[in-house]
Amino acid sequence: MTHSSTRSVGGIEVIALRDGAMTAPNGLFPLHDMDRAVAAAKQAGDEYDGTSVTVPVNAFAIRTGGRVLLVDAGAPDGYSGSTGHFGEALAGAGIAAAEVDTLAMTHLHIDHVGQLTGPDGAARFPNAELVSGAGDWAHFHSDEVYARANTRARGSIDVSRRILAPYAERRRDAQGETPLAPGVTMIPLPGHTPGHSGILIEDGGEQLLIWGDIIHSETFQLAEPDWSVLFDIDQDQARETRKALFDRAASDRLMITGPHVRFPGFARVERMTRGYRLVHEG
After folding, report:
1. Phi, psi (degrees; rounded to nearest 5) at 128
2. Hey, which family's this protein in (predicted)?
3. Structural domains of the chain, ranges and CATH numbers in brackets
4. How many Å apart are CA 238 and CA 214, to the nearest integer?
């Protein structure tokens, strides 16, 4: 199976990196309703067994102006039975870790930071600065947040903290819309986490938005944009961000992709009688 796929946005090269996939139970979606879920899956053209959906895990590399940026870094070792291909995907794209100068993190959950360090705990990207949306680093390192978390969430926070530690002295918060490289801008998309962000790529009159965790399941959430997930820090804000972005993407015919969009994930949002659907391209 191919684990990398390249698309041009003007003169900028965007490479989708397939790490694998995980399985999410119905309970991930607090508003889950069986009849609506079946209808949503039918509209999306996806199979649905009534109990769970597949959630892809992707990352992205960007080449622009002699720079190499990485958007997210897959899941940690052992995360699921079918993740673990991030390194293979990066190598297949012809990118050496030392080339990467910027780690543009949509947010700091473990399935996005998982391969920032190697098995020895050292930084895998020795020449890269880590950039995340304002509020995310503080949230994941907050003693108050940790104290409120359940056992499972604490385990995830522990992993994120351990993986992020080597980058503590070469990181920065992105305040508002933040240019990262020629044609590449980090934009706030709050709700999933305090600093959750997208990466907007623009060149030659073309645009592509890597929209982070706006969705976890295109099977459900395009048709049901009100369906947030348990891991959304602020489910109401995540819902409003998602609905506004779906509307913008459909109106502007904005090409999107994301960590949990079906690989390679380059698609456009189309309005439907029931919400929206993704129309994949190439």
Report:
1. -105, 140
2. Belongs to the metallo-beta-lactamase superfamily.
3. 4-280 (3.60.15.10)
4. 7
